Write the structure tokens for this entry.
Amino acid sequence: MINCKQDGWGTVRVRTADGSTWSYHDVPTRHIRFHGWLPAGALLMAAGNGDGGNAPFTLHSGGTRHDLPVMPRPFWVEDVLGYSNDGSRLAVLGVHWSYFCEDFEDITGIRPPFGCKERFMLVVFDSAKKKIISQRPLKNGASWGVLSPDGKRLAIFENHTLFIYRLP
């Protein structure tokens, strides 16, 4: 078991099952968020990159950071959807939401009763080449997507239909 704590503003602390600890420190004004576990105890994190974009990166034991390409605008990393067995490819769910709607909910405690639309996108990274190899919008009530174990196919369940795409 691995325990990951973040203060949200620049520091991540990790404690492994054997009791060893390590941490990662970033610029204190950058909001860092944990998004999921990867192979070999690595973590998927993301931080605002200063110009409104979202910069995902992986953290490895000892605090080693590996940057991934910035998410396609205006999407932000939401969750890990899968990774290849060798860890070279990673699929994430990107989300775009209206800040007005988020602020409304934070202030009032209720979801806005008017057209706040979230948009979702599946993004596949090749971490070794540090590039995005696929980005596909999710529409019509898509419920999920997953990367194949070899990282060469992407499955998306959308509108009661399973679509399987070959990746480069």
